[in-house]
Inverse folding.
C-alpha cells in the first residue's frame, strides 16, 4: 500500500473519527453516558464547540507550513476535511447560542429582533458571526467542481481562512472574563501562522 492509499483508506477515516469525537463527547455528556456537563450546561456546550472550531482552524492553517517544512505533501489531503470540520463546530457553536442560549428552541415565537440586535450591536458576537459567514462560503465552495469554476476567485476566497483564524481568536478573547491563558495561546499560534505566511511571501 503506497502513501496515498494509506492516506485514503487509513488516515482519512481515522482523522474523520477523531474530529467527530468532541461532538460525540458533548452528546454523551449531555445524556450522562460519557460524563457530565457543568453546572451551566448551555455555556459548557457553547464553549466546547467554540473551542474546537478555533483549534481546528489552527490545525487547518498549520497544514501548509508543516508540509513545506517537512516535505510531507500528503498532508494536503486532510486540509479540506479539517476545514469542513471547522465549519461544522462553528455552526454547532452558533446553533447552540441561537437555539439554547437565546431560547429559540424553547420559544419559537421568540423575537428575532433581539437576535438581530445581538448580532449587530454586541461586537464579539458580530465578529464571530462574520467568521461563520466566511466559513460557510468556503464550505459551500469546497468541492473540486467549484474550484474549477471559480478559478482564481476560489483561491482568494479560501485565503480568508486566515481571517477566520483572526476573527475566531478575537471573538474568543472578547468574551473571556477572567482566565485569558487560552486566548493568549490561540493568539500566539495565529500570529506564528500569519508570520510564517508573510515571511514566505516576502522571501519569494
Amino acid at each position: 500500500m503506497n502513501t496515498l492509499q494509506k492516506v485514503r483508506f487509513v488516515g482519512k477515516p481515522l482523522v474523520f473519527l477523531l474530529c467527530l469525537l468532541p461532538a460525540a463527547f458533548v452528546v454523551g455528556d449531555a445524556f450522562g453516558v460519557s460524563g457530565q456537563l457543568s453546572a451551566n450546561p448551555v455555556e459548557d456546550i457553547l464553549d466546547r464547540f467554540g473551542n474546537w472550531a478555533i483549534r481546528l482552524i489552527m490545525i487547518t492553517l498549520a497544514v501548509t507550513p508543516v508540509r513545506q517544512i517537512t516535505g510531507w505533501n500528503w498532508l494536503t489531503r486532510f486540509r479540506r476535511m479539517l476545514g469542513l470540520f471547522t465549519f461544522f463546530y462553528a455552526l454547532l457553536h452558533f446553533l447552540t447560542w441561537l437555539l439554547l442560549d437565546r431560547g429559540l428552541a424553547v420559544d419559537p415565537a421568540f423575537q428575532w429582533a433581539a437576535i438581530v440586535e445581538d448580532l449587530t450591536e454586541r461586537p464579539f458576537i458580530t465578529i464571530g458571526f462574520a467568521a461563520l459567514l466566511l466559513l460557510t462560503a468556503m464550505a459551500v465552495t469546497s468541492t473540486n467542481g467549484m474550484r474549477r469554476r471559480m478559478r482564481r476567485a476560489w483561491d482568494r476566497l479560501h485565503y480568508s481562512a486566515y481571517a477566520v483564524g483572526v476573527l475566531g481568536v478575537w471573538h474568543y478573547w472578547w468574551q473571556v472574563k477572567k482566565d485569558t491563558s487560552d486566548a493568549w495561546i490561540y493568539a500566539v499560534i495565529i500570529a506564528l501562522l500569519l508570520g510564517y505566511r508573510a515571511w514566505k511571501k516576502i522571501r519569494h
About this structure: The radius of gyration is 18 Å.
